[in-house]
Amino acid sequence: MAFSFATTYALGQVAKRYYAGGRIMSTAMLRETFQGLLTPAKQLQTQYLPQIQQKAATLDAGQIMALVRGA
User: Fold this and answer.
1) pLDDT (tens digit, 9 = 90+) per residue, 14-42?
2) How many Å is the maximal CA-CA distance in the chain?
3) Is the pTM above the cut of 0.70?
């Protein structure tokens, strides 16, 4: 779970920067930005792990879909 949290978070942040910058970013810059965000993302995962585990233990499919829809 730690790896997928960190990579998902880092990819999301890279995507925000990519689109905020007018969708112009070299492959090298994308890679460098991702690598630079991965360590802080892993730290966030450690910080929020208890909350993530608690939420994961109580979610059901209906709740997940409501969260996705923003309800």
Assistant:
1) 999 999 999 999 999 999 999 999 999 99
2) 41
3) yes
Q: How many angstroms separate the CA atoms of 60 and 20, rounded? A: 34
For 34, phi then psi, to 5°, come to -60, -50
Work out the average pLDDT over 2-10.
86
* Cα–Cα distance for residue pair 47/14, rounded to 1 Å: 21
Tokens describing residue 4? 């997928």
Expressed in angstroms, the distance from the first to the final Cα of the chain is 25
Buried b (16+ CB within 10 A) or exposed e, 17-40: eeeeeeeebeeeeeeebbeebbee
Helix or strand holding residue 69 (H, E): helix 61-69
How far is it, in rounded angstroms, from Cα 38 to Cα 2?
A: 11
